[in-house]
Amino acid sequence: MQRAANKYGVKFSGRRDQAAGSRSAEELLCALRRASVRTLTTADEPFATIGLGKYFPSAAPFGARTFNSCAVVASAGSLLNSALGAEIDSHDAVVRFNNAPTQNYELDVGSKTTLRLLNSRVLSEPQFDFLGSAMYRDISLVAWDPSRYDGDLKQWYNSPDFPVFTAYFERRLMLPDEDFHLLDPSSLWSVWNFLQTHTYTSVLPNPPSSGFMGIALMLERCDWVDVYEFVPSLRMTKRCHYYDTEENEFCTLGAWHPLATEKLLALRMNHASDREVFERGVLRLKGYSQLEC
Ligand code: C5P
């Protein structure tokens, strides 16, 4: 694999944890907790000054509600024929990603959606029909787009990767009561720093995947988080997503996002048995409320 160009100017100045390999699940979760994962608020600049701040929701995602059990559903092809749908739906909150459908896949992925975490392509490319599709209605939404590693919000506002702001503010005007948030892009790099701090080799200089950001968001809000087919189970195939036929093993192992690093660390934070992880495809992580950090 070719090394990625450092498009975002990632320059890790932290110190790698020399004892990373022997950290417990709790220690790693406590370190992830220290990463700042936040969504933008009415007071954030430059939005406040240019009159756009008022369009951000006044409360945190879910109105700051917390949950007992949460399911985070990675979109991997190996969810097909898993029959995990009913189990996924039994959680208090279910997180899905981008345009991953439930219709026609209920048996394997369930039908309940509490939150969708969206990359900025979904907001800005017509094929996703972000404004028209029922897939994005009546649920909580959090969208992300990368900034430069050392960039501030003003720099990001002036040069996002995709035209995320037009789509975001247009929708906020149309649906002002919707629970729709923008992730502070420095959260991506804060989580990236966590990945690099606990990895001996150099981590790809690109943002973490939506899947790992979804895990980080929910650990703060759920007593426990079950993560489906993020660490590949024995059902693993080359199929990229359960909902389309593209075959590309890099979807699972990572070529652009530092997916392999994310998955190795997620596995180390897991409390479920090998049978749960590798036969059934389910990781169980303790939410931050269950830790003594
Ligand atoms: O491809 P997409 O980003 O929409 O998938 C949502 C998330 O599911 C990814 O960000 C990644 O974390 C996870 N995923 C995975 N293995 C795949 C496909 C997706 O772990 N084969």
Features:
single chain, 293 residues, alpha/beta, sialyltransferase cstii, chain A, seven-stranded mixed beta sheet, 11 helices, 7 strands, 29% helix, 13% strand, binds cytidine-5'-monophosphate
Topology:
Layout (H helix, E strand, L loop, with lengths): L24 H10 L32 E7 L11 H5 L3 E5 L8 H4 L5 E5 H5 L15 E5 L8 H6 L5 H11 L5 E3 L3 H12 L12 H10 L2 E7 L21 H4 L5 H10 L5 H7 L1 E5 L7
Parallel strand pairs: 1-2, 1-6, 2-3, 3-4, 4-5
Antiparallel strand pairs: 6-7
Bound molecules: cytidine-5'-monophosphate.
Cytidine-5'-monophosphate binds next to helix 8 and helix 9.
Can you offer a commentary on this structure?
The chain is an alpha/beta fold. The protein has one domain (20-290): Glycosyl transferase family 29 (sialyltransferase cstii, chain A, Alpha-Beta Complex), CATH 3.90.1480.20. The chain has helices at 25-34, 85-89, 106-109, 120-124, 153-158, 164-174, 186-197, 210-219, 250-253, 259-268, 274-280; strands spanning 67-73, 93-97, 115-119, 140-144, 180-182, 222-228, 282-286. The longest helix has 12 residues, at 186-197. The structure holds cytidine-5'-monophosphate. Cytidine-5'-monophosphate is lined by residues 74-77, 97-98, 209-212, 230, 240-241, 251-252.
